[in-house]
C-alpha cells in the first residue's frame, strides 16, 4: 500500500473505532470529559504512529490501553502536584497502576455509540456545540478537522468542545442510556444534529471548499451507524434515506466555478445510482412500517425527484401530496414554501403565488430570502419578468450564501437582458 | 453565523487621539480589549481580529490605464476611520449586537465609555438552501 492509502485506511479505522473505545473508557473511568480527552490523544498517537509502524494486531485494545494510560498519567501528575503542595503521601495512585486486562475482558458494547450520541446531543447544548462534540467524540474527527470544516481556528473549536463537555458535566448526566419517553425525545435531538451536520456539509461541498472536511460523508457514516444499531426505527431509516437521496445529486448540483445548478437543469447522468437505489430501498421500507415521520416524507419526496429520468418526467402530483402530509405534520413555513412550488408545477404558477400570499404574514419568514426567491421563480414562470426581477434581486440581497446570491443575481440579470433585447 | 464587527474611531485632530490620554487610561483601554478578546476565545466565538495601523498613511488605490497602481490620499479630512475588526461565529445576530455593544463601550479618558460606532455585517458563509 502507498503511504497515502495507508494513512487513509488508518483514518477510516480510527473513526470507526473511536466511539467503541470512548464508550469502554468512559464506562470504566466514569468521567466522560476526561475520557473523551484521553481517547482523542490516543487517536492522534495512532494516526501518527500506525502509518509507519503498521496497524497493531488488536487496534481497539491498543487505543483503549493508550487512552487509559493517558488518564493515569494525568492523574499521576495531578497527584504529584498535590503531594508537593500538601506533603501528604498517599497510595491512592496504586489504584490506577493496574495491569490492563486482556482484550476479551474489556467491555466493548455496541450500544455505547448510541449512549455517546445521546450525551453529545444533550439538550443543554447549543446546536453548534452538539455538532462539534458529536463529530469529535462519536465521529472520531480531530479538533483540527472539525475546525477546518467550519472555517474557524482550531483553538476556538477546542474551546467550544471543552465548554460543551462542561455543560454536560454540569447537567449531571451519567454514562447511561436514557429510558422510556425521554429516549425517544433524545433520539429526535440526535437525528436533528446529524441532519444539521449533513446540511452544513452538503451545502458547502464542491468548488473552492474542497479541502474542507467532508461533513456530508461524516453525517451519512454516523446515520448508517445509528441505523445499524436501530434497524427497526423508521425515523432513522428515513433520515439516512434522505441523506443518500440528496447526496446522490452532489456531482451535478454545482458547476466548475462552484455555481449552483438547479434540479431541473442538472445532468442526471451524474447522479449516483448506487446511493439512489439504497435510499429508495430504505424509504420504501420505512413507508411500509406504518407511522411515517418527517424525515421519511422528505426522503420520499427526494426519491420522486431522483427516480425521474428527465426533469419533465417528475411526478409533481405525488410531490404535492407528500408536501401536504409534511405540512400537516411539521408547521414549518419552509415546507409551505416548497408545497407552493409543487402546487405551481401541478396547477400553474398562479396557484403557487396564491399560496405564497398566505405566507406573507408569517413572522418566521419575514425578511427571509427564500420567500422572495420562490416568488421570483413563480413570477418568471407566470411570464411576469418585471416582478420576477424585483424579487430575484431582493432575494440576492438577503441570502447569506455566496453561491445562492450569485445564482439569484444571474437569474435577475438574464431576465433583465432578455427584456432589454425584446424592447430592442 | 459569522459576523464582522468593524470598529470606527473618531478621527479628531490627529490620527489617534489616544496619544493625549493619561497612561492609566490608555492601559485600561488596552486591558479592556485584551479581556474582550479572551472572552471571545473562551466562549468559542473568536474567528479573527485585527487592529489596523494609524490611517495617516492610508491610501486609496486604483488601477491606472496600464494596470499600474494609482494612489490617492491620505484623507486628513475624514471624520472617522476603521480602527480594527473582529470576526465572530455566534448563534444569532442578537449575540453579535451584544458583543458589538460591549466593544463600543471600551473605556476612554477618565474611564468613560467611548461608545464608538461598530458596524456589524454578516459574513457570507451561510449554506445555500435550495
How would you describe this structure in keywords?
heterodimer, A: 424 residues, mainly alpha, elongated, B: alpha+beta, Alpha-Beta Plaits, 4-stranded antiparallel β-sheet
Question: If you had to describe this structure to a student in words, what would you say it looks like?
Answer:
- The complex is a heterodimer of chains A (424) and B (130).
- Helices cover 70% and strands 0% of the residues of chain A.
- With 424 residues, chain A is mostly helical.
- Chain B is of the alpha+beta class and 130 residues long.
- Helices cover 25% and strands 30% of the residues of chain B.
- Classes of the chains: A mainly alpha (424), B alpha+beta (130).
- The interface between A and B is medium-sized, with 33 and 20 residues.
What's the layout of helices and strands?
The complex is a heterodimer of chains A (424) and B (130).
Chain A: H1 3-29, H2 32-53, H3 59-86, H4 112-120, H5 127-137, H6 143-150, H7 154-171, H8 180-204, H9 215-229, H10 234-247, H11 273-288, H12 294-307, H13 316-330, H14 333-347, H15 349-357, H16 369-381, H17 385-398, H18 402-423
Chain B: E1 2-10, H1 23-42, E2 46-51, E3 60-63, E4 69-72, E5 80-89, H2 93-104, E6 117-122
Antiparallel strand pairs in B: 1-5, 1-6, 2-5, 3-4
CATH class of the domain at 1-12 and 21-50 and 82-125 in chain B: Alpha Beta
- What is the chain-wise order of helices and strands of chain A? HHHHHHHHHHHHHHHHHH
Largest sheet of chain A: none
Count all strands of chain B and give the number.
6
- Mean pLDDT reading of chain A: 88
Q: How widely separated are the two ends of chain A?
A: 65 Å
Query: Biggest sheet of chain B, open or closed, and with what strands and sense?
Result: 4 strands, antiparallel
Q: How many distinct beta strands of chain A?
A: 0
Distance between the termini of chain B: 18 Å
Task: List the chains of the largest interface with their residue counts.
Answer: A-B, 33 and 20 residues
Oligomer state equals heterodimer
Q: Report the β-strand fraction of chain B as a percent range.
A: 25-35%
The shape of chain B is flat
| Global Rg of chain A | 25 Å
Q: Which strand order spans the largest sheet of chain B, edge to edge or round the barrel? A: 2-5-1-6
Contiguous uncertain segments of 5+ residues of chain B: none
Share of helix among residues of chain A?
A: 55-70%
Q: What radius of gyration of chain B results from the CA coordinates? A: 17 Å
As residue ranges, the low-confidence spans of chain A are 88-100, 205-210
Return the structural class of chain B: alpha+beta
Amino acid at each position: 500500500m502507498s503511504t497515502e492509502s495507508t494513512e487513509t485506511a488508518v483514518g477510516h479505522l480510527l473513526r470507526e473505532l473511536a466511539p467503541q473505545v470512548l464508550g469502554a473508557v468512559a464506562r470504566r473511568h466514569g468521567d466522560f470529559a476526561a475520557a473523551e480527552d484521553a481517547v482523542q490523544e490516543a487517536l492522534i498517537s495512532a494516526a501518527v504512529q500506525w502509518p509507519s509502524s503498521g496497524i497493531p494486531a488488536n487496534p481497539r485494545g491498543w487505543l483503549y490501553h493508550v487512552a487509559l494510560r493517558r488518564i493515569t498519567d494525568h492523574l499521576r501528575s495531578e497527584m504529584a502536584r498535590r503531594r508537593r503542595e500538601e506533603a501528604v503521601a498517599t497510595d491512592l495512585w496504586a489504584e490506577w497502576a493496574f495491569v490492563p486486562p486482556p482484550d476479551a475482558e474489556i467491555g466493548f458494547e455496541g450500544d455505547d455509540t448510541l449512549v455517546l450520541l445521546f450525551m453529545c446531543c444533550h439538550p443543554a447544548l447549543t446546536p453548534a456545540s452538539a455538532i462539534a462534540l458529536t463529530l469529535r467524540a462519536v465521529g472520531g474527527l480531530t479538533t483540527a478537522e472539525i475546525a477546518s470544516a467550519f472555517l474557524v481556528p482550531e483553538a476556538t473549536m477546542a474551546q467550544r468542545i471543552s465548554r460543551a463537555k462542561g455543560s454536560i458535566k454540569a447537567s449531571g448526566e451519567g454514562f447511561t442510556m436514557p429510558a422510556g419517553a425521554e429516549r425517544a425525545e433524545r433520539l429526535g435531538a440526535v437525528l436533528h444534529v446529524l441532519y444539521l451536520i449533513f446540511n452544513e456539509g452538503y451545502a458547502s461541498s464542491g468548488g473552492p471548499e474542497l479541502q474542507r472536511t467532508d461533513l456530508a460523508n461524516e453525517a451519512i457514516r454516523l446515520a448508517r451507524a445509528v441505523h445499524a444499531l436501530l434497524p427497526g426505527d423508521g425515523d432513522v431509516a428515513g433520515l439516512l434515506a434522505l441523506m443518500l437521496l440528496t447526496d446522490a445529486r452532489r456531482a451535478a448540483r454545482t458547476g466548475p466555478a462552484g455555481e449552483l445548478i438547479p434540479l431541473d437543469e442538472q445532468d442526471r447522468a451524474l447522479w449516483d445510482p448506487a446511493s439512489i437505489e439504497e435510499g429508495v430501498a430504505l424509504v420504501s421500507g420505512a413507508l411500509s412500517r406504518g407511522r411515517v415521520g418527517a424525515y421519511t416524507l422528505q426522503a420520499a419526496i427526494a426519491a420522486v425527484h431522483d427516480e425521474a429520468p428527465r426533469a419533465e418526467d417528475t411526478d409533481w402530483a405525488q410531490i404535492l401530496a407528500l408536501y401536504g402530509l409534511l405540512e400537516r405534520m411539521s408547521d414549518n413555513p419552509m415546507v409551505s414554501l416548497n408545497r407552493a412550488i409543487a402546487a405551481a408545477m401541478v396547477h400553474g404558477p398562479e396557484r403557487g403565488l396564491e399560496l405564497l400570499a398566505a405566507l406573507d404574514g408569517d413572522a418566521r419568514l419575514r425578511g427571509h430570502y427564500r420567500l422572495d426567491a420562490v416568488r421570483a421563480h413563480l413570477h418568471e414562470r407566470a411570464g411576469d419578468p418585471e416582478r420576477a426581477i424585483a424579487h430575484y434581486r431582493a432575494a440576492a440581497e438577503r441570502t447569506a450564501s455566496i453561491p445562492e446570491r450569485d445564482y439569484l443575481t444571474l437569474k435577475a440579470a438574464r431576465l433583465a437582458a432578455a427584456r432589454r433585447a425584446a424592447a430592442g | 453565523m459569522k459576523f464582522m464587527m468593524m470598529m470606527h474611531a473618531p478621527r479628531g485632530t490627529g490620527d489617534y487621539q489616544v496619544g493625549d490620554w493619561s497612561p492609566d487610561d490608555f492601559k485600561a483601554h488596552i486591558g479592556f480589549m485584551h479581556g474582550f478578546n479572551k472572552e471571545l476565545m473562551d466562549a468559542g466565538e473568536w474567528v479573527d481580529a485585527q487592529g489596523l495601523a494609524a490611517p495617516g498613511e492610508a491610501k486609496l488605490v486604483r488601477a491606472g490605464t496600464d494596470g499600474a497602481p494609482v494612489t490617492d490620499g491620505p484623507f486628513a479630512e475624514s471624520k472617522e476611520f476603521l480602527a480594527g475588526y473582529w470576526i465572530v461565529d455566534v448563534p444569532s445576530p442578537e449575540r453579535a449586537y451584544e458583543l458589538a455593544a460591549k466593544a463600543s463601550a471600551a473605556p476612554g479618558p477618565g474611564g468613560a465609555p467611548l461608545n464608538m460606532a461598530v458596524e456589524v455585517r454578516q459574513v457570507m458563509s451561510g449554506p445555500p438552501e435550495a
